[in-house]
Each structure stands twice: as C-alpha cells, then as structure tokens.
Amino acid sequence: MKSRIPVVLLACGSFNPITNMHLRLFEVARDHLHQTGMYQVIQGIISPVNDNYGKKDLAASHHRVAMARLALQTSDWIRVDPWESEQTQWMETVKVLRHHHSELLRSPPQMEGPDHGKTLSPTPAAVPELKLLCGADVLKTFQTPNLWKDAHIQEIVEKFGLVCVGRAGHDPKGYISESPILRMHQHNIHLAKEPVQNEISATYIRRALDQGQSVKYLIPDAVITYIKDHGLYTKDSAWKGKSTQSAEGKTS
C-alpha cells in the first residue's frame, strides 16, 4: 500500500458571511489532492480575518466565527479556528500560516478523516504539510502592485504550497505563467477544477440580505437563522460604512 503525505488545508478570508461556496472549496480541493495519489487531506481549517482588516461592511469577528462554526456542524473534517480573529491587529496571511505550522509541529492532528471509502495510508509519524487553500480570484491578487510582499508570496508557495480552485472568468495557469515567483514554484501549486459552476459570493449574499431577498440554499440554514437573530447585513447594521485599507486579497 502506497503511503500518502498528510495535508492540512488552511483558508484565510473574511467569511462575511460563510457561504456554501466556501465549503465547496474544501471538498473540491480534497478530492483533487486525493486523486493525485500522493496526498491524504486529514483536516481543513477556516481562519476568519481580524476585525482590523478594514474591509467595508465587515461584520464583527465573533459573529463571523460563530457563523462558521454553525456552518461546519455537518462537517467531520473542517473546523474554524479563531486565533487570527482574536489578535490585536490584522495578520498577514503568511503569519497565519506560520502560526498553524508551528501548531502542527507541536501537536499534529490525528491521521483520520473521510476518504470516500478508499483506504489511504499516510506516512507514519509524518508532520502534515500545511497548504493555503484559495480561489483563483485570490491567486490573481498576487499580481496587484503593493498588495502582497514578494517575500511573502515566495514563502507561501515555497514553504507551504497552494491549492487553488478555479472560478469562472479566471485563468490561474495564466496568473502563474505571468509571475516569476509562482512560475518557479508551480510544482507546489495545485490547480483544482470545480465540476459544478458555483459563483456564490459573500458580496452577493450581503447585497441580497440588505435588500430583503432570500438566500436560502446559498448559505447554511443555521447561518441564515443566526443572521436574522442578530440583525446582521441590513441597512441598519452597526458595521455599515467602515473605512477600507490596503491589505492582502482574502477569500470574501
């Protein structure tokens, strides 16, 4: 039986609010890595961004973490981690990766998880690889001047690795070929394809909620209930009108 490399997937972003598309990113990425025959995905981590990210219409982190927890009640391998959201300042993505990497070194997760009925054998006593999970829209932001530090991009793709799920209107292979750093480390960038077009965005969800439209089947029912109970994403929400700042592209 061929040993597989254990992998933990980390998604950093606003999750404002978490949507079914965010959850699908994990499922698609896991399927892709398993199909390579090299990897076993043993855990997924959702890391909501700190309130000081400065993004307009960003709900308070405790709400975003709570909604993610509710959305993940039906998952037995993805969890939400509040560490990034609890820091005193906004954290660059590479620093979040460093934190979780050190946590894996200190206490590796159990080698278990769904495998679609197939027996997957991870390398004995291996420390899991930590890979950043993102959509192709985030990969594109690597090209935006003054948004990401080149040293950070290099550390992400060289030390950790990327799993990028394609989105309509994006050309991830093109983004890689246009970037010397990404091109140099393209062996550590996995491009996964979503077989079902899924263009649900948190921006659309917020707009629909603001206009009183239904978002059922776009986000988990438990999240819809939470939003209603706490009066989030409405015209009268207290977080309306926050200023923005220049910060790395993150999953919305």
UniProtKB/TrEMBL annotation:
Pfam families: CTP_transf_like (PF01467). GO terms for molecular function: ATP binding; nicotinamide-nucleotide adenylyltransferase activity; nicotinate-nucleotide adenylyltransferase activity. It catalyses: beta-nicotinamide D-ribonucleotide + ATP + H(+) = diphosphate + NAD(+); nicotinate beta-D-ribonucleotide + ATP + H(+) = deamido-NAD(+) + diphosphate. It is found in: Mitochondrion. Gene3D superfamilies: HUPs (3.40.50.620). Coiled coil: none annotated. GO terms for biological process: NAD+ biosynthetic process via the salvage pathway; nicotinamide metabolic process; response to wounding. Keywords: ATP-binding, Mitochondrion, NAD, Nucleotide-binding, Nucleotidyltransferase, Pyridine nucleotide biosynthesis, Transferase. One of its GO terms (cellular component) is mitochondrial matrix. CDD domains: NMNAT_Eukarya. InterPro entries: Cyt_trans-like, Euk_NMN_adenylyltrnsfrase, NadD/NMNAT, NMNAT_euk, Rossmann-like_a/b/a_fold. Its cofactor is Mg(2+). Residues 10-207 form the Cytidyltransferase-like domain. It comes from the Eukaryota. Pathway: Cofactor biosynthesis; NAD(+) biosynthesis; NAD(+) from nicotinamide D-ribonucleotide: step 1/1; Cofactor biosynthesis; NAD(+) biosynthesis; deamido-NAD(+) from nicotinate D-ribonucleotide: step 1/1. Homotetramer. Catalyzes the formation of NAD(+) from nicotinamide mononucleotide (NMN) and ATP. Can also use the deamidated form; nicotinic acid mononucleotide (NaMN) as substrate with the same efficiency. Can use triazofurin monophosphate (TrMP) as substrate. Can also use GTP and ITP as nucleotide donors. Also catalyzes the reverse reaction, i.e. the pyrophosphorolytic cleavage of NAD(+). For the pyrophosphorolytic activity, can use NAD(+), NADH, NaAD, nicotinic acid adenine dinucleotide phosphate (NHD), nicotinamide guanine dinucleotide (NGD) as substrates. Belongs to the eukaryotic NMN adenylyltransferase family. This is Nicotinamide-nucleotide adenylyltransferase. It comes from Chlorocebus sabaeus (Green monkey).
